Structure to design on (1134 residues):
């Protein structure tokens, strides 16, 4: 058997790691470990020269195992696996030690952090001894895609894919396509009619031969893996349809919160108080009137209704500031004499032509009144002397307690994730953040993928977004999907279970615990077997197996136990 | 000087490990005695791993998985929970304080919660002091080499590094 | 207690000068750069906010506009060209109209045609009164003294010099008292709005006296003005103010010593003071006129009709006064008489209109505003000390 030769590389990550961890000491300590041939440090291991160093060493020093102590494997494991592959080594002969996210960034004692880094790297060295070469599996991709949600994001994605000649299943829970965008009159900051553009897109979808739309429908179940998913769609109340597809675009969007939950705004109590989506309907009718059919003399627009407030939604709902400015302009042109008030907590006008709209609007005799959420939100009461309501709050820029009369109050309600987000995240194996929005694979470098291959999250289901952002995301996801389809195959998880038939006693515990039905019992041999296409490599069967016959590749008992040993071994201090 | 314990932590790849990474990217400070081992799912956490960690000298073992219903593999965390309860009972019977092992759900967005959990658990273990399992194992080993280890290969209590 | 906002209020202000209130985004640079804006009396941003929101009571009670001397620094710093300095000027005009309960100040500021009409009517009344009741003697040409100068008090038919001086003095004093009464009543309004009506403020009685020196000091030196970065305006304004004050005292209090039949030599105190006053007024007036026409300095870029009326009236008064002096020295009797009449016909309406109802009222409002501001500061200090004592009991007691 070939002798194990390990190369250890400790990354400085500039100062990110080197400031808190004595990387040289870590490398030195590793030199003396069993089977370690060399241990080096480098400023940025992920850089081209860093990777080249690994490749060169593998060739020159005949390394057959590599340990890289750097950032989280969730960030650069694939980078280094590719480097190993380029050097002619099986990519799974790599083990990473996370000494940045889980060490240098979270500790403040350099000696302790260095000691911990040594332990973690020692664990990795110990583990890598037992790594086995694994071969990637390629499976063909089903060119059809499932799109969940028929809002502007889902519509865009559907048309992109269908126009490229690929089959699309578009599932919409409502009886109409268009989502929130369809409820809008004009868009900000340019005041284009979105309904005109949407109508054209929806008509194209309806007649498109590559798109099958399921209205009033819900996804009930999703099985399979990238390239080969299978799902159940419940159409209307009873009919269940079974479809196959290779990729999934989640575009479930968001919905406004119920403003009744914030009592001080008196929504539902005073007819003068309406939500922004209510007001869009008023605008669509062509004139600005309140619920009593009267032209208001004073119109108040209250920002951040439930947004940026720890008691309701801690995040910014992204589109309301610009929409509120749009309203001010609409009201100003419909009612030139009316007083328009913007009651805001902070004006957020970032983005193309947005600051310009803000500047332009503030010159149109619109009174911007600032309130501080920490000191309480505005309170709406019946006006004792006037026809409408009174909005009371402490105005921050003057420091005065003021009351503002208004015959029409528009609440810029916060947006929250759709109510089916939870079930769809569970079906697709993706995660939701603390606010119920989908988590993307990487917030900056991979903003539409998820940790589940073949599942993309686009538009407002991952955080409130405006239309151009949603459209961009939908197109980004479809570009990814089309690339996969063009390639014709996808590489699937090699980390699957395998059965050592010699040890298997045929107890079938593994079959009971497998969530995917990937384990079968071979009656003839009286042992279990694994269907690798279905197995996702969670390893639950391995922990359940009483005889140790079933193990998960790359996470074998031996590998993990030796990692524990390595971590617990004594390390030199300092 | 206060005893500085060693804690071995098993985190599932999808929720808890990501949560711990988030604590890092958010630069939240927590106790430096946590040593993390990544597994694909909390369902993969074999009781043997925990026992191995204790016999190697760990003073505490922290297990984390996705919140119920959020498991990337549907239900691995439930399996982990069942095993955890049994394991706690087992450890208790073997004279190990069951507070030395803990199972918590940490989602990918709960960096803060992970940092707090790490600190809290570290404090608990500090109060319990040094675990004497490793020492006792040695004594028993000397007394009767066979009796200490019932399932040597499976329990992984022997060194796995081939020499 | 909360205040109901009045967004229409800002429209009322447009006649007083500045008429655009939307540019400001409240960065506060103006307040930060102002050398006079201090704790307790911060301006100009807060005043602009009060205007935007229509907090009229708050503005009526504010002393800040009088504490600003319009150096223009805030307008130069403003990133939005909101021109806060001009805003303070507008507020001073507005406040003048609010202190005056007769409504004349508001009428003159908002519709300056009325100011012309009143000035013109008073001019005519005085000219007619002179021509009817105090006409030029038929033998006036003889009224020349030994040095060849006109005997100015002996030019009226049937009235001797002593009597004539008596009549003019009587008129002077009447006018001074009327103006003083009007100003005092306005200052009472100002005191009531800015000090008395503010809740929870108790001015220690003794401080009314201990702080009274502020009035005289600030009137005489305008030391607050000197704190603005550009000292030239302070010096120029001081020349104007002292010149005018000297002249006012000479013609009201010391008229029998000033308006005499003989011609004193040029180095006589009475003539020297007169020359100083004339120079002081004309010098500053000339500079201000040129700069207002140039529109380069922020301070003098925006001229309200009331600013020009003031300048023109003062210039006409001074020029006619100089002419009286020249004609008198030259022994030109008729010319002396008629320019004297015209001089009075300009001077009297100017004082009667400008001092209580228009721009000139600031001569009283500024020192009083500083005095009231000082009283409020003292009250706040006393309050602070008291609450401090309550919070921290003396050690060992």
């Amino acid at each position: 058997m070939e002798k194990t030769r390990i190369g250890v590389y400790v990354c400085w990550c500039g100062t990110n790691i080197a400031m808190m961890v004595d990387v040289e000491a870590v490398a030195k300590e590793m030199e003396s470990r069993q089977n370690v041939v060399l241990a080096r440090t480098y400023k940025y291991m992920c850089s081209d020269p860093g990777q080249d160093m690994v490749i060169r060493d593998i060739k020159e020093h005949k390394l057959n195992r590599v340990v890289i102590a750097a950032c989280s494997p969730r960030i650069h494991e694939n980078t280094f696996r590719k480097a190993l592959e380029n050097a002619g080594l099986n990519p799974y002969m790599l083990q990473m030690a996370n000494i940045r996210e889980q060490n240098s960034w979270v500790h403040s004692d350099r000696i302790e952090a260095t000691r911990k880094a040594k332990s973690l790297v020692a664990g990795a060295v110990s583990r890598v001894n037992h790594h086995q070469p694994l071969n990637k599996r390629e499976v063909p991709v089903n060119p059809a895609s499932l799109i969940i949600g028929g809002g502007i994001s889902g519509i865009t994605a559907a048309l992109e894919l269908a126009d490229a000649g690929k089959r699309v299943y578009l599932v919409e829970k409502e009886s109409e396509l268009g989502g929130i965008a369809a409820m809008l009159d004009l868009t900000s900051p340019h005041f284009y009619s979105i309904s005109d553009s949407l109508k054209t897109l929806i008509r194209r979808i309806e007649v498109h031969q590559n798109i099958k739309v399921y209205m009033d429908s819900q996804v009930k179940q999703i099985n399979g893996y990238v390239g080969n998913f299978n799902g159940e769609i419940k159409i209307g109340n009873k009919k269940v349809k079974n479809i196959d597809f290779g990729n999934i675009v989640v575009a479930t969007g968001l919905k406004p919160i119920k403003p009744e939950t914030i009592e001080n705004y008196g929504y539902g109590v005073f007819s003068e108080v309406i939500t922004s989506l209510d007001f869009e309907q008023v605008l669509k009718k062509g004139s600005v009137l309140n619920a009593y059919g009267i032209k208001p003399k004073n119109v108040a627009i209250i920002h951040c209704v439930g947004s940026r407030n720890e008691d309701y939604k801690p995040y910014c709902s992204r589109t309301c500031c610009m929409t509120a400015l749009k309203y001010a302009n609409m009201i100003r042109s419909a009612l030139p004499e009316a007083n328009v008030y913007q009651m805001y907590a902070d004006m957020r006008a970032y983005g193309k032509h947005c600051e310009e709209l803000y500047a332009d609007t503030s010159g149109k005799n619109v009174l911007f009144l600032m309130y501080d959420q920490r000191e309480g939100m505005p309170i709406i009461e019946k006006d004792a002397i006037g026809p409408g309501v009174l909005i009371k709050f402490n105005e921050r820029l003057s420091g005065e307690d003021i009351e503002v009369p208004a015959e029409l109050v528009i609440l810029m309600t916060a947006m929250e994730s759709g109510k089916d987000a939870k079930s769809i995240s569970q079906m697709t194996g993706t995660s939701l953040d603390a606010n119920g929005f989908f988590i993307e694979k990487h917030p900056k470098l991979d903003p539409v993928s998820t940790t589940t291959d073949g599942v993309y999250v686009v538009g407002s289901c991952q955080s409130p977004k405006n239309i151009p952002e949603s459209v961009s995301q939908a197109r980004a996801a479809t570009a990814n999907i089309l690339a996969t389809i063009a390639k014709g195959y996808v590489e699937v998880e090699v980390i699957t279970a395998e059965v050592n038939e010699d040890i298997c006693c045929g107890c079938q515990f593994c079959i009971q615990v497998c969530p995917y039905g990937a384990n079968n019992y071979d009656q003839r041999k009286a042992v279990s077997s694994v269907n690798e296409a279905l197995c996702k490599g969670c390893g639950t069967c391995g922990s359940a197996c009483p005889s140790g016959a079933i193990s998960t590749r790359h996470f074998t008992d031996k590998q993990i136990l030796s990692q524990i040993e390595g971590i617990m071994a004594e390390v030199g201090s300092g | 000087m206060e005893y500085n314990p060693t804690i071995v932590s098993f985190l599932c790849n999808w929720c808890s490990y990501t949560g711990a990474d988030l604590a890092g990217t958010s630069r939240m400070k927590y106790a430096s005695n946590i040593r993390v081992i990544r597994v694909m799912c909390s369902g993969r956490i074999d009781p043997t791993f925990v026992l191995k960690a204790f016999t190697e000298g760990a003073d505490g073992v922290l297990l984390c998985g996705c919140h119920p219903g959020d498991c990337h593999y549907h239900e691995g965390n439930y399996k982990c929970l069942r095993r955890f309860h049994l394991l706690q009972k087992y450890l208790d019977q073997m004279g190990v304080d069951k507070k030395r092992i803990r199972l918590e759900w940490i989602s990918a967005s709960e960096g803060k919660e992970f940092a707090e959990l790490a600190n809290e658990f570290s404090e608990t273990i500090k109060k319990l002091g040094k675990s004497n399992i490793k020492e006792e194992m040695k004594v028993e080993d000397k007394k009767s080499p066979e009796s200490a280890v019932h399932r040597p290969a499976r329990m992984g209590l022997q060194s796995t590094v081939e020499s | 207690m909360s205040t109901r906002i009045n967004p229409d209020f800002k429209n009322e202000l447009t006649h007083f000068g500045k008429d655009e209130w939307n540019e400001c985004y409240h960065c506060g640079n103006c307040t930060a750069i102002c050398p006079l804006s201090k704790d307790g009396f911060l301006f100009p941003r807060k005043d602009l906010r009060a205007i935007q929101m229509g907090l009229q009571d708050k503005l009526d009670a504010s002393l800040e506009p009088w504490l600003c001397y319009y150096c223009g620094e805030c307008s130069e710093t403003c990133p939005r060209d909101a021109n806060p300095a001009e805003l303070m000027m507008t507020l001073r005009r507005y406040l003048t109209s609010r202190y005056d309960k007769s409504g004349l100040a508001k009428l003159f500021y908002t519709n300056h045609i009325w100011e012309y009409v009143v000035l013109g009517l008073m001019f005519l009344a005085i000219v007619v009164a002179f021509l009817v009741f105090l006409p030029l003697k038929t033998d006036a040409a003889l009224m020349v003294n030994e040095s060849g100068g006109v005997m100015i008090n002996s030019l009226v038919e049937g009235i001797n010099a002593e009597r004539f001086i008596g009549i003019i003095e009587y008129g002077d004093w009447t006018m001074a008292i009327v103006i003083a009464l009007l100003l005092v009543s306005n200052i009472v309004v100002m005191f009531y709005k800015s000090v008395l009506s503010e809740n929870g403020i108790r001015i220690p009685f003794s401080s009314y006296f201990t702080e009274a020196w502020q009035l005289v000091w600030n009137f005489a030196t305008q030391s607050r003005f000197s704190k603005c970065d550009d000292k030239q305006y302070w010096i120029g304004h001081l020349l104007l103010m002292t010149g005018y004050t000297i002249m006012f005292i000479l013609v009201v209090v010391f008229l029998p010593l000033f308006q005499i039949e003989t011609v004193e030599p040029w180095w006589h105190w009475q003539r020297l003071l007169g020359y100083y006053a004339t120079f002081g007024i004309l010098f500053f007036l000339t500079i201000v006129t040129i700069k207002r026409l140039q529109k380069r300095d922020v301070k003098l870029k925006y001229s309200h009709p009331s600013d020009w009326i003031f300048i023109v009236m003062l210039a006409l008064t001074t020029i006619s006064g100089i002419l009286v002096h020249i004609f008198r020295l030259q022994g030109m009797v008729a010319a002396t008489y008629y320019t004297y009449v015209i001089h009075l016909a300009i001077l009297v309406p100017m004082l009667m209109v400008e001092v209580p109802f228009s721009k000139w009222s600031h001569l009283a409002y500024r020192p009083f505003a500083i005095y009231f501001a000082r009283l409020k500061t003292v009250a706040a200090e006393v309050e602070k000390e008291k609450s401090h004592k309550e919070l921290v009991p003396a050690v060992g007691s």
Notes: The longest helix of chain A spans residues 467-487. The CA atoms of residues 230 and 244 of chain A lie 4 Å apart. Residues 145-253+418-490 of chain A form a domain with the FAD/NAD(P)-binding domain fold (CATH 3.50.50.60).
